[in-house]
């Protein structure tokens, strides 16, 4: 990592300085990264540690529904589930947030009112991000006005891949401004479309320089979503960014995490890479929907000693 | 395996078979990595078989649940065709099963052959029942109103079967064929002492159009694997054919928690024609009322 901390203020001064900085980031050792992610995935987490990890993971879930067929009823049901994931066991923690499209924010806000569960909204022409900046900003303002606590924006991958880093940077800062002080901003890179680990590292730094509160792997709408390797890479980025600037940024892997075992592997990555400071739902989230049911079934198994089944958790 | 040491074969190295579980259409080793020694009736080593753990049982239930929708939704005729195909495949590997049954149960070649033939015939017999059971146990009920009232048998769901301990092949076929004939999916725990015919049956099922997960074969200590399955909330029924009295009682108590259907162990002579008790044991009756249509001026819709 670059060690010239004060210089960070200047890197966004112009397109060329930004490019020089991003391309000056050390290249990623692909084999080493994947081996490290795989070896951390072999840890055996049992009994009390497992119980702790399951409750922590539940509290980190951004319970998500992003379908064209979302109805107000479905969003209300999701909100109820976020507040009390397992109604038969009130010791189950609530999830961190529900994540919906902007037009469902008001409905979701009603559904989780008074519970401490946040409402996150995707915005900026999610999931493609192919719209004019004005349209994207209007999308964000709309969601914020409806009461969204968190905005999940997508970056313009086309501009990023074409090397127009400043355009991406300006867009993120504009969206950050539109979020105001009330909403935290999560920036989605769609890592599955960025092709290389080097690009993921560059995108992570670009997002953090532009003021992201969270960096998020993916939309869940493409073939490759969150993987242990790309999440590990982003965790290294937030760790180094805090070391250099003192600013802590959160990480949210999204899409493709379906089992408790997977979720626990990600928590091991967090603990071993970024550190225990990130083991909190203010700094780490899972973007998921089916994961929660598996976490609940595992929780029931630990509590009762017998295997549970999908008949004992809500269908969503 | 009883390797023949003919003079002609003496130059060859023996090719030992690795017996593996059959779960979800695949052949995994036990998740635990454990195996145990299987011996013939005289105590001579035959092979190592996987010693399944509760996690193998859990995975098998997941596979069986996944397969249930497709299998129970297949037409009865189609299920019959597939089960007949299984019998065809069994016929093709008859010699292997004769050898395994002879080793496992200490029978002469000719007695073992008779047992295997009976098992194949039984499989065919159950294949024929798939599209006939509904006529026998379902039907139209007379009701006092302008309704059709129809009862149809529906499969129970995921069934755990403890295969008979003594009859390692004919007994096994006699307990799993009726369960899947009616559209259930099954997790079967092979005979603890002689699991090899059951594990070989998995290889037959894998090559006979039967969708993966409809039958899942586990080997190991019956009591160890059966306990988590009896308590499993996603298992709908359990057949205790291979349990002794003490184990059966324990399992029945565990099974009561989510109201599983339980078939208690009973003395069965598997060489005799079975009747349809095992077919109907894992069926539930669905009754549907349907209006016959608007009443005409005469007070009848006919």
UniProtKB/TrEMBL annotation, chain A:
User: Superkingdom, according to UniProt?
Assistant: Bacteria
Signal peptide: which range, if any? none
**GO BP terms, alphabetized:** carbohydrate catabolic process; deoxyribonucleotide catabolic process
Query: InterPro entries this protein is in?
Result: Aldolase_TIM, DeoC, DeoC/FbaB/LacD_aldolase
Family matches, as SMART domains: DeoC
Can you say what this protein is called? Deoxyribose-phosphate aldolase
Q: Which GO terms describe its molecular function?
A: deoxyribose-phosphate aldolase activity
Alphabetical list of CDD domains matching this protein: DeoC (cd00959)
Q: What class of enzyme is it?
A: lyase
- Pathway, per record: Carbohydrate degradation; 2-deoxy-D-ribose 1-phosphate degradation; D-glyceraldehyde 3-phosphate and acetaldehyde from 2-deoxy-alpha-D-ribose 1-phosphate: step 2/2
What SUPFAM superfamilies does this protein map onto? Aldolase
Cellular component (GO) terms are: cytoplasm
| Alphabetically ordered keywords of this record | Lyase, Schiff base
- A Pfam family it matches: DeoC
Enzyme Commission numbers on file: 4.1.2.4
Catalytic activity as recorded in UniProt: 2-deoxy-D-ribose 5-phosphate = D-glyceraldehyde 3-phosphate + acetaldehyde
The entry's family comment says: Belongs to the DeoC/FbaB aldolase family. DeoC type 2 subfamily.
Automatic annotation (TrEMBL), chain B:
Q: Which InterPro entries match?
A: Ald_DH/histidinol_DH, Ald_DH_N, Aldehyde_DH_dom
Coiled coil feature spans: none
Species the sequence originates in: Streptomyces olivochromogenes
- Where is the chain membrane-spanning? none
Gene3D superfamilies cross-referenced by the UniProt entry = Aldehyde Dehydrogenase, Chain A, domain 1
Give the protein name, as stated in the record: Aldehyde dehydrogenase
- Give GO terms: molecular function aspect only: oxidoreductase activity
A Pfam short name:
Aldedh
Kindly state which keywords UniProt assigns to this record, in alphabetical order. Answer: Oxidoreductase
Domain Aldehyde dehydrogenase, first and last residues per copy: 31-263
* Origin superkingdom: Bacteria
